[in-house]
Design brief:
With about 160 residues, the chain is mainly beta. It has one helix and 16 strands. The strands form five sheets. Strands 1, 9, 10, 12 and 13 form a five-stranded mixed beta sheet that branches. The protein has a five-stranded antiparallel beta sheet with strand order 2-11-8-14-5, with no helix packed on it.
Length: about 160
């Protein structure tokens, strides 16, 4: 059984880059509050998407994907989510023993390094959403989901 750990810049370093928009450049006006990242995340053309995820207090990480040609950016929406990752060999299969689960709060942003295995995020409270950006062509092994070896990993939020 794996339990989520709160994501930090230090503990996420092996998987990519982490920041929180609400701790970065703040701009505001009479009718808005805006936050802009201090770092550039995008180094190539990317596609933008949104995932709506379900809330399950216990779930199984049974498969993961990884991208060999691009980083992937994930942006937590308005409710907390958890992200499961593994730094297993990107040319092999994701290994159960390598899986870590990170707790992300609204405004948290990660850029997964090329080759990092990851699952779709899960909602911590009610159903939630997150945004993602990736360059991948959508062809071949770039978007193929691989089964966790030797068996799925139970996660409890």
């Amino acid at each position: 059984m794996v339990r989520p750990i709160k994501i930090t810049e230090e503990n996420f370093k092996a998987f990519g880059q982490y920041s929180n928009l609400q701790r970065e450049n703040r701009l505001s006006g009479v009718k808005y509050e805006e936050y802009i990242s201090a770092e550039k995340y995008v180094y190539q053309p990317m596609r933008f998407g949104m995932t709506i995820c379900k809330n399950e207090k216990r779930f199984y990480v049974d498969s993961m994907e990884r991208h060999l040609t691009t980083e992937e950016i994930l942006i937590c929406g308005d409710k907390p989510i958890v992200l499961s990752v593994a730094d297993s060999n990107p040319y092999g299969e994701p290994q159960a023993e390598d899986i870590l689960v990170f707790y992300m709060e609204p405004g948290d942003v990660v850029m997964l390094a090329k080759g990092i295995w990851h699952d779709a995020c899960q909602a911590v409270e009610a159903d939630a959403f997150y945004y993602f950006m990736a360059h991948g062509t959508g062809k071949g092994d770039e978007i193929k989901w691989h089964a966790i070896q030797p068996a799925p990993v139970a996660v409890e939020i």
